[in-house]
Amino acid sequence: MTRPATTAWSVKGHIQELGGAFMFSREARAFGEGTGVPGFIGPYMKGRCGVLGDVDADVVTSAVGFFHPQAVREAWESVEMPAAQAAEGYLHACHEFGRRKLASFDGSERLSELLLAVVRHGDATGAPLFAGWRAMPLADDARALVMQLVHTLREFRGGLHFLAVRAAGLAPVQAVLIGGSPMFGARDQALLYGWPESELAEVTDEQRDRWQEAELVTDRLAQQAFSVLDKAESEELAALMAKAHAAALSR
Question: Global pTM?
Answer without folding.
Answer: 0.95
